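Q: Can I see a sequence and its folded structure?
A: Here is a first one.
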Amino acid sequence: ASLMKAPPQAAAPAAIAMAAPIAEPPVGTDIPATLFESGVRLLEEGRAEAAVRPLQAAIQLRPDAMPYHLALGTAQLARHRLGADTADAAQTAFEVAARLDPRSALPHLQMGNLAWERRRWSDAQEAYAKAYARDSSRAEVLEGLVAASWYAGDFTTAGWAVREARDRSIETPLISRAAV
């Protein structure tokens, strides 16, 4: 009897036990944050479509987290740029992010970028103006405001934004060209 070996199935419980930490995170793990970080990592790798699912899961667990909605909107904007019909989903995510943190410029900046992509110049101008009201130090906000105002035919605002950028020592190629 001592020469008998255990049947092959005997190894299965050890393998299952080893897999358990992967299936269930350790106690105290911030699951929404882990999902968010996973989504952001996928987005940074250029895998916007794959980023959506963990970001949506994070939002299901923490619907009050502005960065989660902002990242989801950014993923949907990236998908839109690749031809997917996700512009409305991006807009909704940015609007929720803006409501959750009314002082943040980032949701408005992204709404401006989305409106720009959609060639909605007045909407872009309005979003960049709201971003500027929240953070006047960001070059991309003033640059967006200059360009969107120009395309919207609002040369007064475009000129004001160029002067504002110059007064703040913000120089970008677009602002320099618009100042000529």
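Q: Show me another, different protein.
A: A second, unrelated one:
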Amino acid sequence: LTQIELNRVLFLLTLLVALLAFGFWVRRRQESLYLWLAAACLAWSTNSAHLFAQRVPLPAESWWVLVHGCTDLWIVLLTQFAHRLAGVVRPRLELALWVWVLGAMALYGFIELAALIPVSSKVHAVNVLVVLYLIIQLAVEGRRDPVAVMRVDIDIGHAGEALRQQRLEREHRIVEVAEA
């Protein structure tokens, strides 16, 4: 498996996770964490597509603005997901991150392509700080409620079991129709 092939496989797996999370959200719309996870996976997939894409459907400047913008968007969406997962309410922080990511995307759109890498590298440094915040936040929540992370696994397990049960019922109906 070459590096490019590995990136393609990881891209497809991330898209699969996005589709699964979106499917869970469609069935359980009151639980927005699935939608935030799906959106974060889509942003990461868009960002990682540049690792193997040979022909892109956009001009180079637009493509690189999209790729770097999705890097920043991913961390905001991941924060939204993590907050919902941990039951944390931080509207001012979330608003600040949205303002930051929209400002970053606008900045990327206005600067020359040659300046994009040095500028985006500085902007991406905020991502590192947000990841550190998320690690600390989830560690604190994990101490406070050690079962919190397991709830998502249980929800995913229940959703998977429900989908399996629907498939079995559908197959049973098909057999009944065929026998009739």
